Amino acid sequence: MPHDDQELRLAIQRLSRRIRSMQADEEVTEGQRSVLFALANSGAQTLGALSEHERVTPPSMNRTINALVALGLVTRTTADDDARKVKLDLSDAGRTFITETRRRRDAWFTKRLAALTPEQRRVLDEVAPILREIADQ
Questions:
Q1: CA 96, 23, 35 angle in degrees (round to 5)?
Q2: When you count CB atoms within 10 A of the terminal residue's CB, does the N or C end of the chain come out lower?
Q3: How would you write the pLDDT of the chain (137 residues) with one tens digit per residue?
């Protein structure tokens, strides 16, 4: 890998870590946060669907969900169509966590962007679609 490619990859990784570190509750782990955002983005889901989405085993997801329920961030409800199915969703506290985490991330990023020169902002505007394309592949 040429040095410039590695430098770009490392810069993107570092930026991603900095953005992810901005969250409403420091007790929430990265894996738990990912589940909360999956529920926020896709709505209530079953344990199996969340396991598949997060690419973890159902027992591992069950441990994560148990911790999130204990923190008051996720609720379990019986599905209307099948009493054997349990739907998992964000609680009001979970929605507050997502809202506050997004607010903190946006504030941090907006502050960093505001410090850039107009030329730097123009370059980032040109690069954003390319990075999105790479991420979506």
A1: 70
A2: C
A3: 556 888 889 999 999 988 888 887 778 999 999 999 999 999 999 999 999 999 999 999 999 999 999 999 999 998 777 778 889 999 999 999 999 999 999 999 999 999 999 999 999 999 999 999 998 88
Q: Are 89 and 35 in contact (CB under 8 A)?
A: no
Q: Which residue type is seen at 16?
A: S
- Short-list 32, 23, 19, 42, CA closest to 110: 19
What pTM was estimated for this model as a whole? 0.80
What's the CATH fold of domain 3-136? Arc Repressor Mutant, subunit A (1.10.10)
Report in angstroms the alpha-carbon separations of 76 from 89, 95, 104, 126.
Answer: 7, 15, 28, 44
Write down the domain spans for the chain: 3-136
